[in-house]
Amino acid sequence: MALVSVSIGPAPPLQAKTNKYKIALCQLQVTPDKDGNIAHARARIEAAATAGAKLVVLPEIWNCPYAMETLPSYAEDIDGGGSPSVSMLSEVAAARKITVVGGSIPERSSGQLFNTCCVIGPGGEIKAKHRKLHLFGIDIPGDITFRESDTFTAGQELTVVDTDVGRIGIGICHDIRFPELAMLYRSRGAHLMCYPSAFNMSTGKLLWDLMQKSRAVDNQLFVATCSPARDTNSHSEYMIWGHSSLIGPFGEVLAAAGHEEATIIGEIDLSLIEAVREHLPLETQSRGDLYRLVDVQREYAS
Ligand SMILES: NC(=O)CCC(=O)C(=O)O
Which domain of life is it from (predicted)? Predict the structure, then answer.
C-alpha cells in the first residue's frame, strides 16, 4: 500500500475529569529480590496515594535489576495472567482508586521478551500496555557498551491512553530521544508524557535534563520521568543516573529527585498548557508549508 503523506492538524482539546491533580514519581531502590521489590513498590504507591496522588508513576524495570544477563529470569506473562507485578499494580490501583503508570517490567510473550509498561485505571483494569519502541544500544569504548536488542524485541505500537487524569502518552527511557514520538502523541491530544526510565551515568549527566525539557517545550505539555534509585553498592557495569522529574509546559522543573530513593510529588494543572499555548502559539506559527509530521500508523489505517 502506498503511504499518503498528510500533515497533522491542530491538537484536539484537552479532556480530563479533573483539571488539577497530584502526580507521584516513585524512584525505587531495586534489588535482586523480586518479591521484595513488589512489596516495596506497593508500599510506596500506597504512601503516595495517602499523600493525595491521583497518578503514580514507577521506574523502568522496577521488579528486578536493569541487567540484561539476569532480566530473562524475572520475565512475566502479562497477557496470560502470570504476572505478580501487574497483579499488585491492579490491586493497589483499585484499592486506592488511582491511576498507575506501572513503570516497566520484562514481559515474556510468544517466546519473546519485551520491556513493557502497563497503565492501570482506578478500577484495577489494564488500560494500556506499551512495549518499548526504541531499544537502547550504545558503544563508547572505555565508557559504556550496552545493547538491549540482545535481550528485548521492540514494540510496534504507539501508546496514548485516556485516563481519569487526562490523556497520557507513554514512552520508555530511550523512547524519549525520538522527538517525533512525542510530537505524534501531542497531535493525538496527550497532555502528559510519561517516560519510565533508567538513564545511565554517562548520558544521564549530559543529557537527562535536556531531553525532558526538550520534549516538554517542543510540545507544550507536561513530561514526567521516573527512574530507579542509583545503587551505589552495585557492581553492575550499568550504574543508574536517577533524578526522576516533573517538567511543566514552559520547561520549568516542578519537582525533581536526586539519585537516592525518593517519592516526589508535583502538581499537574492542565490549564497551564492552554495558557502556554495561548501565550506562545507555536502551532499556528509552525510552517506546515515547509515541513510535515506524518502519523504513519494512522495513514495506513485510513
Ligand atoms: N534504559 C535506557 O533506555 C537508557 C537510555 C539512555 O541512557 C540514553 O542515553 O538514551
Answer: Eukaryota
